[in-house]
Amino acid sequence: MKHKNQVFDNVLDLIGQTPLIKLNKIASKFKGNFYAKVESFNPGHSSKDRIALYIIEQAEKKGILSPGDTIIETTSGNTGFSIAMVSIIKGYDCVLAVSSKSSADKIDMLKTMGAKVYVCPAHVSADDPRSYYQVAKCLHEEIKGSVYINQYFNELNIDAHYKSTGPEIWKQTEGKITHLVACSGTGGTISGTAKYLKEQNPEVKVIGVDAFGSVIKKYHETREFDEKEIYPYRIEGLGKNLIPTATNFDVIDEFVKVTDEESAHTARLIAKSEGLFVGYTSGAAMQAIMQLGEQGAFKEDDNIVIIFPDHGSRYMSKVYSDKWMNEQGFFDSKNEAAAQNIQYIK
Ligand code: PMP
């Protein structure tokens, strides 16, 4: 257990044991108690610290990795940052293939953390040789002694959350959690956490959050991979154009889809109402709560836990930029003045 007055051996000792924080305002018009699992309290500012440390340590235990080896991954940014951080402490080289959809801030951060970065086009199919999956595969074949984390198809991604996030939430809610709401990208977070929670209490309802333009929700409902569902969207880290094996669809009860625009406004609202500066997918997860709340999905005594995966600072050039919001047309429909809170004194 982490303590505020403790001295730590290195930054990796601070991974996990993130706080569960009650949301007092944003969902107060709905029945139920709402709590956010705020993953930006990890030292790498996201939930991905958990899987980076866990998967690398499993590889070390199996004798696959030794210092000086290279770790390769495909990532929208957060996993890359976490792997880079773990690599620094443990003495590995870190090579990352990222989507061109990732923000410039995220790519700069990866470079700052010593990673070598390949930026690949976002809107090509997963089997296109230019896609970040194929680029990573190729690098793995070329670089001797390399390990490919492959978070979308690595069962250890689920295990990491089964062993940490799930037990933490169970303990923090004293077993009183009734609903888990989490975004699904690789699906590792929701699958591992849900598996643990449902083993403790099969009645816990698990709701995944998906994007319009992603195949995940339809696959969950029909077990059909429908290419027609795919089109570009702006939220990074949520939804997919393929079916990851790191998603255990059997432990998820339902998926809710959210729009780029509403998720962006809800992310801003979290900051303004709760004082929590969190990322775009936290806005998406909260937006799902808003939609479910409007439908009367929650009861007075429900304890709903929402995962907030990362920190707002990673989205300064996107969701938290008025210029970007304007360019997307996100201010139009809500008639929200871009510079509402700013007065320029001349
Ligand atoms: N939010 C953000 C910002 C992410 O980077 C990711 C990971 N792609 C997720 C949510 C979803 O987490 P998971 O991959 O465990 O489903």
From TrEMBL:
Name the record gives this protein: Cysteine synthase family protein
Keywords: Pyridoxal phosphate
Pfam families the UniProt entry points to: PALP (PF00291)
Cofactor(s) annotated in UniProt: pyridoxal 5'-phosphate
GO annotation terms (biological process): cysteine metabolic process; serine family amino acid metabolic process; sulfur compound biosynthetic process
Annotated Tryptophan synthase beta chain-like PALP domain residues: 12-310
InterPro entries found in the cross-reference section: Cys_Synth/Cystath_Beta-Synth, TrpB-like_PALP, TrpB-like_PALP_sf
Family from the record: Belongs to the cysteine synthase/cystathionine beta-synthase family.
Record CDD domains: CBS_like (cd01561)
